[in-house]
Task: structure prediction
Amino acid sequence: MGHIIGVVATLVLLTVVGVYAGRKVKSSADFSTSGRKAGWGVVAGTIMGTLIGGSSTIGTAQLAFEFGFSAWWFTLGAGIALVILAFGMVRPWYESKSETIPQYLVTTYGSGVGPISTVFTTAGILINTVGNVLSFVAVMGAMFHVTPVTALVLGVFFVLSYVIFGGVWGAGLTGILKVGLLFITMITCGVIAYFLMNGIAGLTAAFPPFPWFSLFGRGVAKDVAAGFSLLVGLVSTQIFFQAIISGESVAASRKGALVSAVITPLVGIGGILVGLYMRAHFPGTPSSEVLPIFILNYLPPVVAGIALATLLVTPIASWAGQTLGISTMFTRDIYQKFFRPQATGKERLLVQRILIVIICVTPAVVASGNYGSLILGWGFLSMGLRGCTVMFPLIGAMFFSRFVTPAAGVAATLLGPLANFMWYLAYPKGIDPLYPGLAVSLGTLILVSLFTKKKPGSPAADSKA
Result:
């Protein structure tokens, strides 16, 4: 009974916050960027509400159960990326008039880059969303013993309820509440697991130093690529761009990013300690369920109910935030640009909400054929693809717009992710596809810029003039 009380109370509270957020939406600008009225807390809530999802919690505990501390790369890499974002990218992003990353790229490279970047970044975000869907299925299975199909249907319903009315306000305000509950949950679980293992002495007695206490337990090349994929992927992702430009000032957006940079890695440590404890004492546990099973067994019933409800909402929040990011890009950069340039704000809002429904269902369909796969694997793959598409063209647009050309930006945005994908197919057990993808993207941007000219009147030419 205590578990049920905790679950119901938490879900009701989160629903009330979501409804309140929906009342703030008066226009499509409110929906997409909160009308640039968000304080640093809402900025941080939007960032962490999306970033700290199933991969950061359930996926981290799962990977730690399998390999140990190399599971930290997802949250540690995210923290490092957010520091770089705060000091290197917040100001140019915030001071732009763009609502999406493709729009930002278009100001330097011309209209040809918009659809290409939208398509490839969408593919990357959808890949990551599959991991969050699998996390939700795992929690529902551990808590209620429902079938995966039932869990998927419920997940789609919760995502639509979470974001379709509130947009960034819904993601940000509920993100603040969710992250607060989640932080307390993960730190509490980590502390309990640490003491149940009798501290450092117990951990070192139960596990050899390698691979369990190494950040490179899966191999240096593989784990460096995992961490680097977070760096390049996070700064190339639409929802984080939206979070930054939704702030009421540059200072608010920077503070929100820095707060997120501190909290996110700590959440990962809690998941790692839980994964190690479960590996030492219950090695036969399904790896995707180690965190919810630990909570059920070692937290007081009401507290466990609150924690489990938070874990239910965690992948839902990330799923919703990523859905919001994709729908914004397609509404602004595809629908409005190519189909209805004269669309009113109400029309764009309606179209975006319809797209949210379609985009929400897509990863659920993919997840239905991939039960049991490694959750963090989807996250690393996703971040890498996004980074290969956008990172170097984005850096070129922000800091080197006088030197890069439209042809170079379009070619790099197209060939980078194609190289990533083709390498993955040709050499699935070779070096991580992130490396060739980024190399092709950077090489293309530099070489094509050297041998092509900026067209008179192009954005890049204007910037040089």
Summary: The chain has one domain: 2-464.
